């Protein structure tokens, strides 16, 4: 075995093999293991909880949970465990982790500084707000990628120490006074002093690489993107220095479209959907850059 093993990563799904693998890690690597990356069926969650109880030296945990075979997930005696993971600094969850997040909300995670939650594969939103109410005060990095809109203002109030925040720019955030015609969304309740970097998921429709939605739906999302990006100002985030686009499909497809556009320009052809979308997207980017430079509202 590997008694000095510090990192254990398995990117493919572990099903019936997880039990023996976890037993081996707990037996031989409990003191040395610092990082794990597991891709598991939902039914394996009880074993995961018992394993975490034994692997107290872990600092970084990534767990990807597959869709459950049944609507009811039985955790058994693992549901009664209230763990204290004193060394855990980074937690990343992806997929159908609703039951797991509910379970660990009551745990003690005194060193947690980084949290990434990706539940784009499901519309069943976990209770993220309750978790942040318990553990958000010490977070410095928060990455939230989900379909359903979350209240960014309430989230940022719960996480005053954040220096990096990532959200889905397609979220339909409430506007001031709940006036749908207003161009100003309620992104924060008060200026967040510590955030220096903001990452944006989504934005596919605004950058012209969406999935063929109706014209009305596309227009709504574009307006939503424009309002959300306009809120990324020095007034709301006095120390903000960087805004990043994070969607990998967007970046891949946009690079391909830009190659096509350059070829069209080279051949003396102009216009088309790519240039139209580029002008719209550049309007958003230019507005953010102007906000950061001037410290204004955009």
Work out the helix count.
Answer: 8
Q: What structural class is derived from the secondary structure elements?
A: alpha/beta
Order of strands across the main sheet: 1-2-3-4-5-6-7-8-9
Structural Rg: 22 Å
Strand runs, count = 9
Instruction: Please mark out the parts with pLDDT under 50 across 5 or more consecutive residues, or reply none.
Output: 269-276
- Write the H/E string, N to C: EHEHEEHEHEHEEHEHH
Cα separation of the termini: 59 Å
How many strands, what sense, and barrel or not for the largest sheet?
9 strands, parallel
What would the principal axes of the Cα set say about the shape? globular
- Percent range for helical residues? 25-40%
- What is the average of the pLDDT values? 85
Strand content bin: 15-25%
Q: Summarize this, please?
A:
The chain is of the alpha/beta class. 34% of the residues lie in helices and 15% in strands. The chain has a 9-stranded parallel sheet with strand order 1-2-3-4-5-6-7-8-9, with no helix packed on it.
Describe what this molecule looks like in 3D.
The structure is a single chain. This protein has helices spanning 18-28, 45-54, 98-104, 128-135, 152-158, 215-230, 248-266, 273-294, and strands at 7-9, 35-40, 60-65, 90-95, 114-118, 141-145, 164-168, 197-201, 242-245. The chain has a 9-stranded parallel β-sheet, with no helix packed on it. The chain contains 8 helices and 9 strands. By secondary structure, the chain is an alpha/beta fold. The longest helix is centred in the last third of the chain and has 22 residues, at 273-294.
């Amino acid at each position: 075995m590997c008694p000095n093993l510090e990192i254990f990563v398995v990117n493919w799904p572990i099903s019936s093999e997880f039990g023996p693998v976890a037993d081996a890690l707990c037996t031989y690597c409990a003191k040395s293991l610092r990082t794990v990356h597991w891709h598991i069926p939902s039914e394996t969650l009880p074993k995961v909880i018992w394993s975490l109880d034994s692997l107290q030296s872990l600092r970084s945990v990534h767990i990807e949970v597959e869709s459950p075979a049944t609507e009811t997930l039985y955790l058994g005696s693992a549901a009664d465990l209230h763990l204290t993971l004193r060394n855990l600094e980074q937690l990343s969850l992806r997929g159908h982790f609703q039951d797991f997040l509910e379970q660990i909300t009551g745990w003690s995670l005194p060193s947690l500084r980084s949290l990434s939650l990706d539940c784009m594969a499901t519309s069943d939103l976990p209770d993220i707000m309750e978790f942040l109410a318990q553990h958000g005060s010490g977070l410095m990095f928060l990455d939230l990628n989900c379909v359903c809109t979350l209240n960014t203002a309430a989230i940022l109030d719960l996480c005053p120490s954040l220096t990096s925040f990532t959200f889905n720019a397609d979220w339909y955030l409430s506007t001031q006074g709940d006036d749908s015609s207003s161009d100003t969304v309620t992104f924060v309740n008060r200026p967040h002093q510590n955030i220096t970097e903001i990452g944006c998921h989504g934005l596919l429709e605004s950058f012209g690489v969406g999935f063929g939605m109706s014209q009305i739906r596309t227009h709504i999302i574009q307006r939503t993107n424009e309002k959300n990006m306009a809120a990324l100002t020095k007034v709301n985030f006095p120390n903000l220095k960087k805004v990043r686009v994070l969607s990998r499909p967007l970046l891949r497809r946009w690079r391909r479209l830009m190659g096509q556009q350059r070829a069209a320009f080279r051949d003396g052809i102009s216009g088309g959907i790519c240039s139209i979308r580029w002008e719209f997207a550049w309007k958003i980017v230019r507005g953010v850059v102007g906000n950061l430079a001037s410290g204004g509202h955009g």
